[in-house]
């Protein structure tokens, strides 16, 4: 099999308001339609945040279960739930996300300043979340916001062993105010520090989207795109849909001669359990 590019779409996030971004998918129907469009455009993984009836971020377990079920019924995408939620969500609610039975989840490897707020991920919470993923056979994607978190990932693996599925896959989240900058030099430094055998995607937030995407492809990495991370397609051009961002990523992957990886191949690649 030739080299392929794993494309993850993060369509919603917890930061943007629907009133400010009308194209943001916040209802279950909008999310399912977005997932279908993004799979057709080349995505293999969907990184999911959900909203309540008032379009506010929520970690309601019943809604999460309904979301996982609907995405599985409508697409072949790997369903990866965020365990970050909003920066104000309590630890117990973030742990409970795993009870919704996703294929995968995010696992952030440390606390980081997040703009004017603080995204809390202390060591005891990280380890409890990680051990639960192992017990529940959920594949974690290790979110890394700075180089210190790469060291924390090494510590986590040394103390608690390999993740479910046996494969370490990371996402370098770059360009967040308070985290590592979204440039090629920092990306290379982070990649060189990863555990042996680990694979990785990269996310460029805001105006770092394109520099990070180009750097990731040139360094042999994978891509995460979506309206959680960027709302501007080009200067003066708002993003019209998540599929628009996936299509651009897939086009660049084709140009790099590493076309988008289908969901079935991605499932084996990440070690996700069969449905």
Short description:
By secondary structure, this protein is of the alpha/beta class.
Can you walk me through this structure?
The chain has 275 residues and is an alpha/beta fold. Helices cover 38% and strands 19% of the residues. It is built from nine helices and 14 strands. The strands form four sheets. It has an eight-stranded parallel beta barrel with strand order 1-2-5-6-9-10-11-12, surrounded by eight helices. Helix 1 packs parallel to helix 2 and helix 1 packs parallel to helix 8. The two termini are 23 Å apart. The mean pLDDT is 97.
Task: Give the key terms.
single chain; 275 residues; alpha/beta; eight-stranded parallel barrel; two-stranded antiparallel sheet; 14 strands; 38% helix
Layout of strands and helices, then pairs:
Layout: E1 7-9, H1 28-41, E2 45-48, E3 50-51, E4 57-58, H2 61-74, E5 78-81, H3 91-96, E6 104-108, E7 112-114, E8 117-119, H4 123-136, E9 139-144, H5 147-160, E10 169-174, H6 184-193, E11 199-204, H7 209-218, E12 222-225, E13 232-234, E14 237-238, H8 242-255, H9 263-270
Parallel strand pairs: 1-2, 1-12, 2-5, 5-6, 6-9, 9-10, 10-11, 11-12
Antiparallel strand pairs: 3-4, 7-8, 13-14
Helix pairs in contact: 1-2, 1-8
